[in-house]
Design brief:
Layout: H1 24-27, H2 43-55, H3 59-71, H4 77-93, H5 97-108, H6 115-130, H7 135-150, H8 156-172, H9 176-187, H10 194-210, H11 214-230, H12 235-256, H13 259-269, H14 280-291, E1 301-308, H15 310-313, H16 317-326, E2 334-341, H17 347-352, H18 360-366, E3 371-376, H19 382-398, E4 402-407, H20 418-434, E5 438-439, H21 441-449, H22 455-461, H23 470-485, H24 500-521
Parallel strand pairs: 1-2, 1-3, 3-4, 4-5
Helix pairs in contact: 2-3, 2-4, 3-4, 4-5, 4-6, 5-6, 6-7, 6-8, 7-8, 8-9, 9-10, 10-11, 10-12, 11-12, 12-13, 12-14, 13-14, 16-23, 20-24, 21-23, 21-24, 23-24
Length: 523
């Protein structure tokens, strides 16, 4: 059995961004502010106590303090709005978006709500909807942020937060010019921390590349590099930012058609401090070099584009597939993976976005891929799966590549086993109709779960109501590896977090499930 590797997790955004108020006497209170003297039950004292509890992630206790403030006859309308806002923030931290949204709507529907509280309520709503990732949700994020920016008597902090929150909304709605405008405003702010300005500057460079302005992107990267030199940040963060800047410099020359400069700049990335074969910037640089045959391939290598949603993002499935392939014996196929991913987005939406260079169709057509992997989703009607899988299959074949479909996870509450089996049957039918390899993730999951899985057994493969845990993602990656290479993953690498016995079971199950699916397609 190959020794374990450690997959690189993707950063997750922080949900809480409303600053707490610190009450001086609470800092010296021996009970850490968990109680308020009965002789002074003021709303502000309860609000301050709740703030301190929230800073320690003691959400339930904080909520009690905020609710106490609401019960006091002396609680003003402004204090009431503030308390409700803080309760809503706690609900978001505890993943109770439904209750949080109801509270926030109540705050926004009150004519008495102060503008500052109204702005923070809108920003919390934007934070909720940004988690979902589909187009309607990004539209809500955009509208909430624009409402904040339209408020007249507002301090700079929520206004800046709204500009920062609206940028990903604009990008996900393909409003690149609007994103660029906000980023140019943000990078002009002298009051922001250097590390924040650096992040905005790099994002601005990425947007300029989307707008086909490579020279302007390099100018933005130069400013970002100067900020990096001028500001003290953690060595690890500094190494990552330098590698990202170097990668984007190489990409900017690619966009211009300056191939020799692009090659030289991209080749520098892998040797930079802190980089490894699993580092995202090194992976992207090597992929771009490999696609253009600018680096010698010591082993036969498949260049594979993954098109998907959070099911591909969570657990970093493309990296898992790469690392499984990298551990195979000499002479076996290696895999270099590229990605076109966005949360909440399926094959139909990606296709309908057109064929510009930075769309899914544009990426398929623009590079010499060997294979393209797309997700199927259990809630898509048969007609949608057939129509759009056929379109992707035609496009990939025209480009000399192979389309592979993989079964993204079924929602946990789906009737088991019949709902799971029905979705797998749809994928068999799709693979038969279009002559496509199928990565049978859902079928493999069923083999692990058994006939009547307990909640604990379900928790082995599920991280939440629909997404895979690390173990579920690894089982999926083994299925995709099998479909891409027509080779068993048995004995190959597995991530830390799995035992050798679990890894062997998942590998054998994935290979057996793929073979069974291929046999079923021929019936």
């Amino acid at each position: 059995m190959h020794p374990p590797f450690v997959p690189q997790p993707k950063p997750r955004p922080c949900l809480s961004f409303i600053p707490g108020l610190l009450c001086l006497f609470l800092l010296f209170h021996p009970a850490w502010g968990a109680s308020i003297p009965a002789s002074h039950p003021t709303p502000q004292a309860h609000l301050a106590a709740g703030d301190l509890l929230q800073t320690a992630n003691r959400w339930a206790e904080a909520r009690v303090e905020f609710e106490k403030a609401l019960t006091l006859p002396s609680c003003s309308l402004a204090e009431r709005s503030e308390a409700l806002l803080k309760i809503a923030a706690g609900c978001i931290a505890e993943s109770d978006d439904t209750k949080a949204t109801a509270l926030l709507d109540g705050i926004l529907n009150s004519a008495e709500t102060p503008e500052e509280t109204r702005a923070n309520a809108l920003l919390l709503l934007a934070k909720i909807y940004a988690q979902y990732g589909d187009r309607p949700s990004w539209q809500r994020v955009r509208e909430a942020c624009l409402q904040v920016l339209s408020l007249k008597n507002l301090s700079e902090a929520p206004r800046t937060a709204a500009r920062e929150a609206v940028v990903p909304a604009f990008l996900n709605l393909a409003q690149n010019k609007e994103a660029r405008r906000e980023l140019e405003t943000l990078t002009s702010f002298g009051h922001l921390p250097g590390k924040t300005l650096l992040t905005h500057g790099i994002t601005l460079a990425r947007v300029l590349l989307l707008e086909q302005a490579p020279a302007e992107a390099r100018a933005a990267l130069l400013k970002a590099s100067e900020l990096l030199d001028a500001n003290r940040i953690d060595a690890e963060d500094q190494d990552e930012k330098r590698a990202e800047i170097q990668l984007l410099r190489g990409v900017s020359f690619l966009e211009e058609g300056s191939n020799e400069l692009a090659k030289n700049e991209l080749q520098k990335v892998a040797s930079m401090p802190g980089q490894s074969p699993a580092s995202p910037h090194t992976r992207e640089a090597l992929l771009r070099l490999s696609l253009r045959k600018w680096v010698p391939e010591e082993e036969p290598t498949l260049k594979v584009l993954f098109i998907g949603s959070s099911h591909t993002i969570r657990g970093n499935v493309p990296l898992l597939v790469e690392q499984i392939a990298a551990s195979a014996p000499a002479g076996a196929l290696r895999i270099r993976a590229g990605e076109h991913v966005r949360t909440g987005t399926g094959m139909r939406v990606f296709w309908e976005e057109g064929e510009a260079r930075h769309t899914a169709r544009g990426k398929i057509a623009g590079e010499p891929w060997d294979a393209v992997v797309v997700e199927t989703f259990f809630r898509n009607p048969r007609e949608t799966l057939e129509e759009y899988a056929a379109k992707y299959a035609t496009l990939t074949r025209e480009r000399g590549a192979q389309l592979v479909v993989y079964e993204s996870p079924v929602a946990k509450e789906t009737p088991y086993p019949e709902g799971f089996a029905a979705f797998h049957a749809e994928n068999i039918r799709l693979g038969r109709m279009l002559d496509l390899p199928v990565a049978p993730s859902v079928h493999a999951w069923m083999q692990i779960l058994g006939k009547e899985p307990s909640p604990q057994k379900m928790g082995l493969l599920y991280a939440d109501w629909i997404h895979a845990s690390l173990k579920g993602a690894y089982l999926t990656a083994c299925c995709i590896y099998s479909a891409l290479t027509n080779t068993s993953p048995t004995g190959l690498a597995y991530p830390a977090g799995l035992s050798g016995e679990e890894a062997a079971l998942f590998q054998e199950t994935a290979w057996k499930s793929f073979q069974q699916t291929e046999s079923a397609k021929r019936l």
